[in-house]
Amino acid sequence: MKKILLPLFCFILINCKKGETQAVNSSLVDVVQEDKAIALDAAKSASPIPPSSVAETASKNESNSTDTTIISKKIIKNGNMRIQVGDIRKAQNQINSIIKNNQAYIQKEEFQNTDTDDNLDITIRVPHKNFDALVNSFSEGVGSVLSKNISSDDVTEEYTDVSIKLANKKIYLEKYRDMLKSAKTTKDMLEIQENIRELEDEIDVSEGRLRFIDDRVNYSTLNLSLYKEKVRSSTTSKIGFGSRFGDSVTEGWNSFIAFFLGIISFWPFFLLIPVFIFIWRKWRNRKKKFNENNE
Q1: How far apart are CA 150 and CA 77, in angstroms?
Q2: What is the widest separation between alpha-carbon atoms in the chain?
Q3: Tell me: the pLDDT tens digits for 72-116?
Q4: pTM for this model (two decimals)
Q5: How many domains does one find in the chain?
Q6: Which of 10, 51, 88, 144 is deepest in the core (most CB within 10 A)?
Q7: What does the alpha-carbon distance between residue 57 and residue 170 come to, in Å, rounded to a whole number?
Q8: What letter would DSSP give residue 103?
Q9: Distance, CA of 240 to CA of 69 (rounded, Å)
């Protein structure tokens, strides 16, 4: 019995030692791997980030931003209207009331008074949601619509493209700023600073473009022209016979001045006429004497 128990005890003791050895070895491997990871992290933090890693990171972020960026429809609405009215001032008061009711504002106003008509040109900016209501109000109660042109421009694709590129440029900018902190030489610092400056300029341009598109999308533009024709009649217009007579006298005098100035412009030819007359007379006298001598 003792002979059987002794070998069994030795076998169990050997297996226990092997288990302990394997556990020690596995723990040593874990420690070595951990040390390697810490060393790699330290090396990465101590050395500057190469541009290739910046490009790879930016390209990954670009694909992620492309997948996650969701932009609503961006529609720019513009319009042109020309309306004939009977009274410019009355129509202008109606327009101001309609503009106020639709939360719009006048961006530009220009008035022209000629002998034949009065023209009032107004550039109106109106919230996108109120654009159709504003146009319908002008079409119904202001006057006779001579022309109307409404257009819609979908800029969603452009807006999305600029937004994605802007996000990627900001990622590049942050990476270059990190590189600048760990730059070792003056040459590297100057190159990184130049890249940062170019990126900042491009970001400003992109942000300005997005602001411009947002403004045009949020506020539509309507160019409105009011037109009143002046009828030249003494019974229907303030322009009577006396005014027309004065205009005729003025036009006649202007025509005479134009004719007189046109004649004066031929003065070189007038100087040559006496020379031609002198030569012609001299030639005629010679011919006359020659004929008399032959007779």
Answers
A1: 7
A2: 188
A3: 889 999 999 999 888 888 888 888 999 999 999 999 999 888 877
A4: 0.52
A5: 1
A6: 88
A7: 12
A8: T
A9: 69
